[in-house]
Write a structure and sequence with these properties.
By secondary structure, this protein is of the alpha+beta class. It has three helices and four strands, in the order E-H-E-E-H-E-H. It starts with a strand and ends with a helix.
Length: about 190
């Protein structure tokens, strides 16, 4: 069997940053050569191997895709250029993935630090709010006590005023009776 090479272009709205290259590499078991790279919006895959292996791989590419990928079209055409050895590409991709992991790890670490600072600030704010609430409870208690005292004073003043008015009214009634007696109306 002779060696066959193919160029496979995967087109779609989401074929990059979904793990497509790793997905395809895991299915390139019987291929001698394999490499994949993002070109513009597409993913271009170069493969080399015997005719049966390249054919099977091409069918897999047409039939399967990573869960997050959105593929519109798979174009397969002949290729006559160089194709990287599968093992060499695997090492290169591993390094790329490790570099991505390191970058994401640093970003996550920075985000976690920022979140910790935010949480610390929120804890301080909550503590301050608790103190404010305690002060407000004390103030409300004082206000209620003063309100009770004011109500008691108003009741006492009302009682005093009632007694005073009753006495004045009795005195006026007595004086009216005396005046009526003096003028002969009684």
């Amino acid at each position: 069997m002779g060696v066959v090479k193919a160029r496979i272009t995967i087109k779609g709205s989401r074929v990059q940053d979904v793990g497509y290259r790793l997905f395809l590499l895991s299915r390139a078991r019987n291929l001698r050569g394999f490499e994949a790279e993002n070109v513009g919006e597409d993913l271009v895959v170069l493969v080399e191997g015997d005719e049966v292996s390249v054919g099977r791989f091409t069918e897999v590419v047409k039939a399967e895709k990573p869960p997050l990928a959105e593929v519109d079209e798979v174009v397969v055409e002949g290729y006559d250029g160089e194709v990287m050895d599968v093992k060499e590409y695997r090492e290169q991709l591993s390094l790329e993935q490790l570099a991505k992991i390191a970058t994401v790890g640093v970003e996550i670490r920075d985000d976690v630090k920022e979140m910790k600072a935010d949480i610390k600030e929120m804890k301080a704010d909550i503590k301050e709010m608790k103190t404010d609430i305690k002060e407000m409870k004390t103030d409300v208690g004082t206000i209620l006590k003063k309100q009770d005292e004011t109500i008691a004073e108003i009741k006492a003043l009302r009682e005093d005023l009632k007694q005073y008015m009753d006495r004045r009214l009795e005195k006026l009634e007595r004086e009216i009776v005396l005046i009526k007696q003096k003028i002969g109306l009684a």
